[in-house]
Specification:
The protein has two helices and three strands; from the N terminus they run E-H-E-E-H. The protein is α+β, with helices and mostly antiparallel strands. The chain has a three-stranded antiparallel β-sheet, covered by helices on one side.
Length: about 80
């Protein structure tokens, strides 16, 4: 049985100008990364300086491992998207 978590985190760069340019890309990246790890996003909200996510995480995956994965991979994917 999956575990339900309400996660609130701040992105590495909290600039409003960047946020508006990559908001949709961030949403797609989070969906893709969660799907890869078998995590189901129940609800999510992108605020100007933080992100709220309600997720179902499998018990084999710790919350700290998942958040490390999500933040590091999303930062790399954003960097790649902005360079291209």
């Amino acid at each position: 049985m999956d575990v339900l978590y309400h996660i609130v985190f701040t992105p590495k760069y909290r600039r409003k100008s960047i946020y508006y340019k990559i908001r949709q890309a961030l949403i797609d990246i989070f969906r893709h990364l969660c799907q890869y790890k078998g995590v189901e996003i129940i609800e999510g909200h992108m605020m100007l300086d933080h992100v709220h996510m309600l997720v179902l995480i499998p018990p084999k995956l710790s919350i700290s491992d998942f958040m490390g994965y999500l933040k590091s991979k999303s930062a790399l994917m954003i960097l790649i998207n902005t360079l291209i």
